[in-house]
Amino acid sequence: MSIEIVFETHALTEDNEAGIATGWLPGRLSLRGRENAVAMGHRRRSAGIAAVFCSDLRRSVETAELAFAHSGIPVLLDWRLRECDFGTLNGAPGDRVKAVRTEHIDRPFPGGESHRQAVRRTTGLLSDLPSRWDGQRVMLIGHLATYRALEHVTTGRSLEDIVADDFAWRPEGWSYRLGQDAQGPTPPTRSMR
Predict the structure, then answer these.
(1) What InterPro entries does the database record attribute to this sequence (predicted)?
(2) Tell me: the pLDDT tens digits for 181-192?
(3) Which domains, from first to last, does the chain contain?
(4) Are 7 and 144 in contact, with CB atoms under 8 Å apart?
């Protein structure tokens, strides 16, 4: 029993273009981001996706709305796919958040959460997927925290290594496969596309 997961980050935002770490703030897609979201829909609408699970932050919702409007594919919002809560650094310059990111693997950002808490939150959603979507292909639209959770769960790599890595956005997204056993998701395979 397994679930194929297609993952893409939300489309490009005004904050991304300005070098801002949006965190738990809503964010808004830029003109180029709206074009990215429409292109995502062209790539994914006929890809056999049974459902789209989307962060409830506005930039992700806007991405899903543009990509999957009138497609018949259900879009389900879930707060567990949110970005890491940077607390007092939500909306701060991205370089500032990036510079301290490894200090907050287990220690929460002031007024926020740690990377491990964000990964645990996303892992809860991954554990719930088999109850309804076993054997199917689903899509997740989220953030860097979503990517880190998927990498950690499917590869077994340490969160310390994943957080320390520089993230490179991929317009074609990522594919993962989750197996299911008594303990929850297991990391049998991971494929890049």
Answers:
(1) His_Pase_superF_clade-1, His_PPase_superfam, Phosphoglycerate_Mutase
(2) 423 344 333 443
(3) 2-191 (3.40.50.1240)
(4) no
